[in-house]
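Known limitations

Files may contain more than one protein. Parsers should not assume a single record per file. Below, a two-record file is shown to illustrate correct handling: read the sequence, read the C-alpha cell line, then continue until end of file.
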Amino acid sequence: ATTGMNVGDFYQCGTRWLIRLHEKGGKYHEVPAHHRCAEYVDAYLDAGGIRDDRKSALFRALDRTRVLTDRRMTRGDVLRMVKRRSAAAGLPTEISCHTFRATGITAYLEAGGTLENAQAIAAHESPRTTRLYDRTADAISLDEIERIQI
C-alpha cells in the first residue's frame, strides 16, 4: 500500500494530515497521519523537492550517487532497505515489512487501543486477521516470572 502512494496521497484536511493508502484490488484506505509521521513526510517532501509533484511517486528510489530519482520504490527495494538497516543495527534477519505492521498493531493495543479500531486502521476485513498481528501475548512480564516460587 505504501509503495503505491503518490505525493498527493499525503494531504492536509483542516488542521490534520491524512494518508491515502492504495490497497489490494484498487481500493483506497485513508487514515490520519500520526504527528511524527506528518513531520517526517513533510521534511522529506521539502528535502526531495517533490512537494508540488502531486501525481508522482511519493517514495522514490535513489540512484547510485544517492540522488532521489523519479522511479517509484518497489516492495523489493523496501524489503532490501529494511534488511540492510536491520543487519546494521544488529537486529534479527527475519525482520520484514510485516514486522512493522505487527509492531504497530501491538503498540496500539498496548497503549489501550481497541481491536476494532486496530482493525479499521489496518483495513482488515475481519478482526481475526488483526489478531494475527497482535503480539501483546508474546511479552511475559517479570511479575509473571516472579510468581514462580523457588
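...continuing to the second record:
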Amino acid sequence: MMARIVTAKEVAEYLRLNQNTIINLAVKGDLPGFKIGKSWRFDMDEIIETIEQSKERARNNQPLTKSDEND
C-alpha cells in the first residue's frame, strides 16, 4: 500500500493542534516526519501509530521514548 503523505497543516487539523506545534514536535523527534526542501511532510500511518503508542503508554503510565520508535 502506498503511504499517505500529508503536510504539517493536515496533521495539525487531524490532531487539533497548531501547525507550529506539529513542526516543533517533529524537530524534537516526538512526531515522525521528514523535510522536503523547507517543507515538513508526514506519513499519516506513522502519525497514527505514534498516537496509538502514546495512548498505550498513557494507560500504563509510561513515557514515550525515542528508542521505542524503532520497535
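Parsers that stop after the first record will miss the second one. For reference, the second record is described as follows. Residues 5-61 form one domain.
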